Prior knowledge:
The chain is of the alpha+beta class. The protein has one domain (about 5-450): Alpha-Beta Complex (Amidase signature (AS) enzymes). Helix content is about 35%, strand content about 15%. The longest helix is centred in the last third of the chain and has 21 residues, at about 340-360. The model has no long low-confidence stretch (mean pLDDT about 95).
Amino acid sequence: MPALEMAEAIRKQEISCVEVVDTILERIEKINPKINAYCTVLAEEARQAAKEADEAVEQRKHLGPLHGVPVSIKDLIFTKGTRTTFGSKIFENFIPERDAIVVQRLKAAGAIILGKTNTPEFGYKGVTDNLLFGVTRNPWNLNLTSGGSSGGAGAAVAAGLGPLAVGSDGGGSIRIPSSFCGIFGFKPSFGRIPRYPELPVWETLAHNGPMTRTVRDAALMLDVMAGPHDADRLSLPDGKVSYLKSVESRPKELRAAWSIDLGYAVVDPQIRTIVEKAVKVFEDLGWKLQEVHPNFGDPEPIFTTMVLAETSAALINAMDEWGDKIDPPLARLVEYGKDVSAIDYVRATFQRKELWEKVYKFFKKYDLLLTPTLAVPPFPIEEGMGPRVINGKKVSILGWMAFTFPFNLTGQPAASVPCGWTREGLPVGLQIIGRRFDDVTVLQSAAAFEEASPWAQKRPPID
């Protein structure tokens, strides 16, 4: 049941909050051992919150828009009184004294926290495994990765272990698992959802956002989570818009550009075929669609320089004590980052500005840019951090996620919507990128695509 319908049924007392929570907890008990989506389940706390939520309904108290609806929180996000490990042995026993702003707002809206979802250590890579909790598996095929770094969140939503999940995205970490798991994931405009408190890393790249089975559920979550907060100096002013109401309509006119490779990416042939078919839906909706070859250049050197430097700065002091207990590829990344000079880093920020100038000029002509979310379908867990050969060509370590991280550098809103399935029955995502701050148009176009090409009824054979 979509969260929107669930909240309405709870308000009308057609179902109880206890019934909802008990049913989902039973499913978590059955399914989670297979996929390892949750690293912490708050069963007792959720049941108690559900009882209190039912009492509020019976007493006809004011109910928030998510009253009684279960939600999961990625284990990178602070939760008061609940262990938050960041997927790291360094924080194995860390219990925050306060909630992150996004968690505060969800609770204030009546949501019930089910637990924490698995993530790679500090969310540094696009697959989900760590030395504390192990690997998260894809509900569509348990031998494949769920993606990352919000892989636990993506797997949980896809497998029916809760309708709503909070993810975070520093280089694709919402969109990657959304594509691999066949759900909707939305990276809002940078600063749309405040991020505080948090560990100091990737401060100008990371976004929090919703991961759901439907676009409307994501819009409902965004209505609750978005808005400024003085604790986050980079948070955006109030847009004074209801995202949920906005998706009930769609633009009459829209100029959509689409690119199969952004001029530099290598793409799996199945992905190419599925996405080329999917983008034609935008023409069927009456919008203008044009294939483009944007001259953005490959932004991987910019992204890599910034990530190396910021990760090393955040973790270098912990290496003497914890180096042998950190995920080995992450430890190597920290060591490489020591060689990035201040001049290298500042030069990368200049190059980031040059990239933005190209993107800004491009979006003066188009409302949206459509691309594959990822260059490949879900790959075997044994492939580690991703394939190094795509369609017979060698690629960099970020080659398979070449479409996601550029738009963390620019901070634009970007969504992944399920747009088809491979011959093996694996989900494929279409990425929809909007103009700076234009979250509404991305959500509206995603909702229109969902209506024209529905996906939510297609579920993984995990049972």
